[in-house]
Design the sequence.
């Protein structure tokens, strides 16, 4: 018989040693697979991956911006996850926010001053994202509907809405895209700091990370949502209004996703497409899980995923390999990391007795 | 991460699809219809080793559309002795139609590329953005429409006069219809073809109209039904569309979308098929007649040659039959009418010599109403005398350029991307899909 048994708390140092050890093993396995399947020198391949992220100042900034955007969505999902509300609707909430931003830019671009426009984009994006998350939250709180499915389905509604408006705002006609919004006037484009178009997003998300850390760990609301996550009955017993906490937390979660949508549309892409969220709503789930919902650790996990992504692209360009090869390496590394977390939390006991009595 | 979004990614829009086997390279002549920047391929290849070039692709080689660009690019770089992949010529795959395209272009420029290509329609705005920031680098965008109005020295569009290839393919279709009539299988009034299109865009309209006119040059009574799938790649929809056309009495099918759906439906129903993108003879040996495709190699060669020689690249490059940018596959003698290959050679020579024009206004009639062909003017017989096409991609979506003169519609002359969007008599649209 095989039993899976929860471990006692492992000393932090030991856990970290195991984690770093496993990454070394994962890299070795990746190296062997690289050498066997492509005939390339694995060390050179790793070097190229690093080149892909750090090869030039522009690459570093692009990487930082992408880490920030992914981190922003991950931060958004975290309060909901801590409450054990599985918000898989990040994608749709980002799209809702992006749609609101694009609407402001296209409809009001030449009608109001730029500062007012950006303020309007900020308010409407947060509201749109919040609304997109509040709808499933309301149904969860009121009727105990399954939030996983509900939030997931809301993604498709958001995608279709965006698809509809892309055709409404199509420019030029027949192209099926809205093109770069306000390319000549740059109305609604987030300001460029010191000539660097990537920096603002990085700064804003850094602030957001600190804010979220404080909110979750040092605020009453942060405490309340953790209690609701641990046990709704306990929460009720100590006088927390569970349905209220659910809706409030999801409004925050959705609003931050909406903010990410605004950063994407107003800050980096300056366009609106159905794929502008680019799977971040789902990748963020992995980022948050890998970091065990700790905002500080999420900086690391989102960095890891983006780094691997750009590394994959660089391998594809340099060696003429398919981009999928980089994805395979990412998959191997994630497999090891997730496996490790399992074995840090649990251990397996083999028992040959008829009715296995497991001694802890 | 980039792959996770594949289930909601917009299929590239409003661009020709093309794939196929190895490209036959244009040997010496590699000028476009505007000959201003033509260079001699031989002298260019000698000096070309000095420059670094880049290509940005929407997907990777698993997409037949991108494969056509990647293969042509690699072959051209090898032929012109640019160097090795990864150091001297760089290919970035999986670049979406968003600011990632700008980032990719900027990175390629940072890496020292003097000439950067992009393959997808939606890349255009981002290429323009990069072109403004890197004035010393040349940016070439396939299928785009804005180069002639942006007035940037280093931003260029390219397309191929694929309507010539489609016209030839239509001639092959007409010969097949004529054979069926002569053999008594159908009567001339039953000579109806079917066409499966992707979107109701100028590019597709221009394509099926030239195909129809090619057939009409052989069988004047021919008619055609067109259905749209609203997707560049949807095997089930394309197969369904072709089957619907066959059930509706169409005796020959052609298509403008990327999957094997329509050819397969034809093979199943034993209805002759004129294909696109490349030969489908392996899957459809009993129904495949001939296929047209775009070959991008002559353009790469022209642009790289121009940069190497320090000359300007055409603002709009239009590859033609004469530059080998438009190609026909081998005719399948088992299905095609007797003498097809010879007739195609003859018509091809006439097209190249300018003796025959695809959109010769005397060969078709147009009905003008408030809703249909509103920008057109016709004479008493319904022949086109004037048409204002929307050539400039500005916010005003209205006709801005007169494109009818000397008795024919001048397609792909005022910009490289097609703009023929008239609905001519004899072609019936069963539905529309503007995407």
Sequence:
């Amino acid at each position: 018989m095989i039993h899976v048994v929860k471990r006692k708390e492992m000393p932090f140092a030991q856990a970290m040693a195991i984690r770093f050890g496993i990454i070394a093993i994962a890299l070795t396995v990746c190296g062997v697979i690289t050498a066997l399947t492509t005939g390339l020198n694995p060390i050179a391949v790793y070097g190229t991956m690093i080149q892909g992220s750090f090869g030039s100042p522009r690459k570093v900034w692009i990487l930082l911006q992408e880490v920030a955007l992914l981190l922003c969505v991950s931060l958004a999902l975290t309060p909901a996850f801590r409450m054990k509300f599985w918000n898989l609707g990040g994608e749709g909430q980002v799209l809702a926010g992006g749609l609101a931003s694009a609407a402001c830019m296209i409809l009001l671009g030449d009608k109001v001053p730029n500062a007012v426009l950006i303020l309007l984009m900020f308010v409407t994006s947060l509201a749109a994202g919040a609304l997109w998350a509040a709808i499933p939250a309301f149904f969860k709180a009121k009727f105990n509907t399954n939030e996983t499915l509900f939030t997931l389905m809301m993604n498709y509604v958001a995608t279709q809405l965006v698809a509809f408006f892309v055709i409404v705002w199509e420019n030029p006609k027949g192209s099926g895209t809205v093109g770069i919004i306000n390319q000549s006037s740059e109305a609604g484009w987030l300001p460029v700091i010191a000539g660097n178009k990537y920096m603002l997003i990085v700064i804003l998300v850094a602030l957001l990370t600190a804010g979220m850390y404080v909110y979750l760990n040092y605020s009453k609301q942060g405490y309340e949502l953790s209690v609701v996550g641990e046990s709704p009955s306990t929460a009720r017993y100590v006088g927390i209004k569970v349905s209220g906490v659910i809706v409030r937390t999801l409004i925050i979660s959705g609003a931050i996703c909406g903010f990410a949508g605004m950063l994407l549309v107003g800050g980096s892409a300056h366009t609106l497409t159905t794929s502008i969220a680019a799977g971040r709503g789902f990748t963020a789930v992995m980022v948050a899980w890998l970091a065990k919902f700790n905002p500080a650790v999420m900086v690391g996990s989102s960095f890891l995923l983006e780094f691997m992504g750009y590394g994959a692209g660089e391998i594809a360009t340099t060696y003429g390999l398919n981009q999928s090869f980089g994805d395979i390496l990412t998959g191997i590394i994630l497999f090891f990391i997730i496996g490790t977390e399992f074995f840090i939390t649990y251990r397996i006991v083999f028992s040959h007795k008829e009715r296995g009595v497991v001694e802890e | 991460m980039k792959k996770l979004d594949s289930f909601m990614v917009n299929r590239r829009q409003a661009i020709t699809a093309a794939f196929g086997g190895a490209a036959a390279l244009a040997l010496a002549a590699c000028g476009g219809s505007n000959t201003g920047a033509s260079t001699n391929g031989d002298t260019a290849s000698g000096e070309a080793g000095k420059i670094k070039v880049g290509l940005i692709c929407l997907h990777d080689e698993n997409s037949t559309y991108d494969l056509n660009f990647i293969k042509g690019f690699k072959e051209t770089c090898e032929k012109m002795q640019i160097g090795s992949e990864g150091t001297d010529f760089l290919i970035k795959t999986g670049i979406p139609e968003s600011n990632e395209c700008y980032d990719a272009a900027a990175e390629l420029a940072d890496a020292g590329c003097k000439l950067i290509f992009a393959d997808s329609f939606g890349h255009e705005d981002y290429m323009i953005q990069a072109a403004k920031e890197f004035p010393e680098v040349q940016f070439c965008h396939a299928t785009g429409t804005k180069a002639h109005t942006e007035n940037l020295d280093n931003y260029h569009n390219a397309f191929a006069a694929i309507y010539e290839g489609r016209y030839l393919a239509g001639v092959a279709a007409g010969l097949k219809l004529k054979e069926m009539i002569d053999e008594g299988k159908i009567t001339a009034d039953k000579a109806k073809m079917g066409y499966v299109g992707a979107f109701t865009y100028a590019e597709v309209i221009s394509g099926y109209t030239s195909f129809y006119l090619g057939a009409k040059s052989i069988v004047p009574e021919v008619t055609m039904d067109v259905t749209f799938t609203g997707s560049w790649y949807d095997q089930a929809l394309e197969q369904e569309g072709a089957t619907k056309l066959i059930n509706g009495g169409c005796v020959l099918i052609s298509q403008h979308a990327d999957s094997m759906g329509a050819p397969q439906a034809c093979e199943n129903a034993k209805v002759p098929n004129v294909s696109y993108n490349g030969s489908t003879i392996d899957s459809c040996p009993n129904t495949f007649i001939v296929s047209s495709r775009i070959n991008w190699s002559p353009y790469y060669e022209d642009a790289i040659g121009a940069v190497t020689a320090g000359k300007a690249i055409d603002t709009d490059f239009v590859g033609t039959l004469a530059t080998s940018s438009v190609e026909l596959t081998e005719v399948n003698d088992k299905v095609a009418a007797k003498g097809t290959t010879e007739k195609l050679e003859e018509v091809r020579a006439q097209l190249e010599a300018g003796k025959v024009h695809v959109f010769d206004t005397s060969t078709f009639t147009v009905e003008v109403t408030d809703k249909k062909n509103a920008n057109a003017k016709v004479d008493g017989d319904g022949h086109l005398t004037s048409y204002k096409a929307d050539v400039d991609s500005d916010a005003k979506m209205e006709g801005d350029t007169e494109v009818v003169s000397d008795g024919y519609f001048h397609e792909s002359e005022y910009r490289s991307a097609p703009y023929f969007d008239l609905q001519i008599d004899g072609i019936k649209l069963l539905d529309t899909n503007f995407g």
